[in-house]
Amino acid sequence: MITKHDIEQAHERIRPHVHRTPVQTSHSINDIAGCSIYFKCENLQNVGAFKARGAMNAAMQIPADQRSKGIATHSSGNHAQAIARAAKILGIPAYIVMPNNAPLIKKEGVKGYGGQIFECEPNLKARETTLAEVIAKTGATEIHPFNNYHVMTGQATAAKELFEEVNDLDYIMAPVGGGGLLSGTLLAAKYFNPKTKVIAGEPAGADDAFRSLQSGKIELSQSNTIADGLLTTLGDKTFPIIKENVDRVITVTDAEIVEAMRLIWERMKMIIEPSCAVPFAGLLKEKPAFAGKKVGIILSGGNVDLEKALKLFIK
Amino acid sequence: MITKHDIEQAHERIRPHVHRTPVQTSHSINDIAGCSIYFKCENLQNVGAFKARGAMNAAMQIPADQRSKGIATHSSGNHAQAIARAAKILGIPAYIVMPNNAPLIKKEGVKGYGGQIFECEPNLKARETTLAEVIAKTGATEIHPFNNYHVMTGQATAAKELFEEVNDLDYIMAPVGGGGLLSGTLLAAKYFNPKTKVIAGEPAGADDAFRSLQSGKIELSQSNTIADGLLTTLGDKTFPIIKENVDRVITVTDAEIVEAMRLIWERMKMIIEPSCAVPFAGLLKEKPAFAGKKVGIILSGGNVDLEKALKLFIK
Q1: Which domain holds residue B227?
Q2: Residue B58 and residue B43 share a domain
Q3: Which among B111, B142, B173 is the end of a domain?
Q4: Nearest-neighbour CA in chain A from B301: distance (Å)
Q5: Both B41 and B161 in a single domain?
Q6: How far apart are CA A106 and CA A119, in angstroms?
């Protein structure tokens, strides 16, 4: 089990290699939302996403002799860049399996950090098979995007930093895909601010976490949403933590995601990707539940093709 | 003359009413630029621009009995919102004269703060005439967008904050339009970090500051650039400070502005308006001069129509 001390140690470990991202507020957003929101800006993190934290923490914990053979993963995007960057910092190779429909900006990001890309069909089976081949050939260590305790512990440091700046939050919100950020956030709340309730945002078109909590077992994800970072299914390491600790999951439509995304772009002057807008969309959808409260929202990432985003905004 | 103490007092005065904006860095931007850049993110300031500082400082210095009659200005954009916001905070009326071609987002911003808009033709004479009429009718106090010592003093607080976080900058850069931010930045450097040289960025299509420094007198501005925040001509209060203290002015084309703007959007996940990209464009244009140096850049604002901005990016 991940302990409070693990999170504190992870924070010290990755501190030289990741940004302490700013916490931003906006009067106009607060007026619209009817509550006080503190945005933890992981879209301004290295590689444009919180994933820099977990990848760095996990890579640094591989023993040195094994580490030199490199690290490998399959990822649709932000985790891929985070692994490539961690490898660059540690001076080791990175092997990244990516679906052939991954956004161009994310592929370019991986190449920019010197990562080697292996493309495959956009389904979980093809990703896993290709990754197994790459690892057999190279001897690299796999770092899973979320179902890895070191990764989850690294992601927990984002919420830890937010609590260090705002210690009386009623709620903290994070998006849920595979559950790495959400489980990290849940553990950070449990250890550092137990009074703060954790609420997840999830796309209605990939609502496996919502359904898993109802059925009590891991349900498979569909993939019918623009939130391309949240298509994955929960893992056996993330689900138990989520099940035990999360207050609830709010699901939102793609139209609600675009509206929330646009508000952050226009009012806060920050670029966020669709997946990142999901918790704020959930808050807006259920405004009365948050009326007058202090709410932390982890803005997870900002990697989006600008042209694609433009098309979302033009009605 | 504005003193060091004036800037310190202004900073204390406005502190409860403006953000202390983050200073952001980016490895990939530094790789591209060949130097270490510290971006002071005034695009993340209230009203999305540094103008919140000067307007607040000036409004707070009007004697209470006079202040209740309101404040007035003419502005193409960000200063207008800043005045409307300052008035709202102080509970007094704001009267804003705006050119009828001002971006919609800026007009909506003014209305959102309860400011009253008076539209006029997009030229200086029409703006001044309309403003004089409004003031005659209301008794409001004019707060000029830049040619006002209290405004200039307020703008100086952005550079002051940057120096507080990074005290060994070789250069600090700011855009120049009317010269409010630039003269504030020059005075902040002079008083708080005299070793730091100040360089201005200016659009080639509105290069009146560049020409004024050559001729030794205030030259009129043309208006042939997408940088709509930098169309104004220097004032008799800003020009002497600029003339005495600025290291130099780098002029850039609109294509160079768009390229620099795109880099900030994509690599730093922040929305900046064309005017805001001008100093960074100047740095990229003259990279060898900055090689290996530590450079502060004040990101002045992020108020831009998304559709318009995104069209600039589509080649």
Answers
A1: 4-49+149-313
A2: no
A3: B142
A4: 9
A5: yes
A6: 13
Mean of per-residue pLDDT scores for chain B: 95
* Model pTM score: 0.93
A298 and A179, same structural domain? yes
Q: Which two tokens stand for residue A131?
A: 């990754």
Task: Answer for the pair A242, A214: CB distance below 8 angstroms, yes or no.
Answer: no
CA-to-CA distance for A171 and A163, rounded, in angstroms?
A: 11
Within this chain, do residues A193 and A267 fall inside the same structural domain, yes or no?
yes
Mutate to test the interface with B, among A25, A46, A269 (most CBs of B within 10 A): A269
The Cα–Cα gap between B199 and B162 comes to 15
Positions of chain B with pLDDT under 50: none
Which of residues B121, B142, B163 is at a domain's end?
A: B142
Q: Considering its fold, how many domains does chain A have in total?
A: 2
Q: In sequence order, what DSSP letters do the residues of A12-42 get, joined into one string?
A: HHHGGGS--PPEE--HHHHHHHTSEEEEEEG
CB nearest A265 (choices: B112, B271, B311): B271
Residue of B201, B154, B156 whose CA lies nearest to B174: B201
Chain B residues with CB under 8 Å of A312 CB are: none
| DSSP letter, residue B195 | T
Residues A88 and A163 both lie in one domain: no
The answer to whether A268 and A44 have CB atoms below 8 angstroms apart is no
**pLDDT tens digits, A48-89:** 999 999 999 999 999 999 999 999 999 878 999 999 999 999
Residue owning tokens 């929330």: A260
Q: Are residues B88 and B218 in the same domain?
A: no
The backbone region for B34, taken as left when phi is positive above 0, alpha when psi lies in -120 to 50, beta otherwise, is: left
